[in-house]
Amino acid sequence: MLQVEKDPFIRLRNIKKTFGHVVALDGVDLDVCPGEVTALVGDNGAGKSTLIKIISGVLYPDEGEISLNGKTYRHLTPPVAIELGISTVYQDLALVDCRDVASNIFLGREPLKARFFVDKKRMNRESEELLRKLKVSIPSVTTPVEFLSGGQRQGIAVARSINQQGKMIIFDEPTAAMGVGESARVLKLIRSLGDEGFAVLIISHNLHHVFSISDRICVLRNGRLVKDFRTENTNPDQVVGFITGSNQRTEEFRKGSTKA
Ligand SMILES: Nc1ncnc2c1ncn2[C@@H]1O[C@H](COP(=O)(O)OP(=O)(O)OP(=O)(O)O)[C@@H](O)[C@H]1O
Ligand SMILES: [Mg+2]
Fold this sequence. Notes:
Blueprint: E1 10-19, E2 22-32, E3 36-41, H1 48-55, E4 63-68, E5 71-73, H2 78-83, E6 86-89, H3 101-105, E7 112-113, E8 117-118, H4 120-133, H5 150-163, E9 168-172, H6 180-195, E10 199-203, H7 207-213, E11 216-221, E12 224-230, H8 236-244, H9 246-259
Parallel strand pairs: 3-10, 3-11, 6-9, 9-10
Antiparallel strand pairs: 1-2, 1-4, 4-5, 7-8, 11-12
Helix pairs in contact: 5-6
Bound molecules: adenosine-5'-triphosphate and magnesium ion.
Magnesium ion (MG) binds next to α1.
């Protein structure tokens, strides 16, 4: 594995996970650093979603360790992951459609006034500030989210992650169902999170998107992390070679032929 200079936010070691006789993850090591956008790429079934479910505590690994904040865990749970600052923006985004933008950003963490009443004014004001900082433009924080576009909804989900004191933000195929303009806005937002110091992990099948925003590209194939690149040191052809396995076979052949 490539050595990274920064202290990682999270360090996974030898993560294994099987489903019956399917080996989804076969001894994965991965570091995700603050201030970086790490892209996780790989073919269908390579193990990407399984890995992020382990990081967010939804699945438990069969073997391996997860270290963060000076502690080592055998597994996380969703509340522990959130407590540690890990926030996942899922594809369906888990927003409550009929409620407005501010209510979604504060879902489950509503500020109270006079101990019993939800402080709606404060929620609206803080939501507006947060969305302005993230450069997410919406008609109003009192608009129900069902009326918003995919990109705007993504922005609301990110605002909620940050509002939950997230330090690491994970995206699983954030632009999969989006048009060109909307994707560009979401990618810009994800890049800005990396620049602000968040540890960002993004899964994408779109290598053009991956190259436009990532600092590192980690390739999973058949449950193994087969390559960890700095984005500036590689190119799409090389990454595709590792996704499909053709590059690795060439490398093994070269090694074999130098030994001979
Ligand atoms: N709950 C489950 N039960 C049984 N097998 C599973 C389960 N979840 C994942 N798998 C299997 O584990 C392997 C890895 O799946 P995973 O969803 O992590 O892949 P992925 O890289 O996210 O693929 P995609 O790009 O298609 O989303 C696949 O063979 C998949 O069929
Ligand atoms: Mg997946």
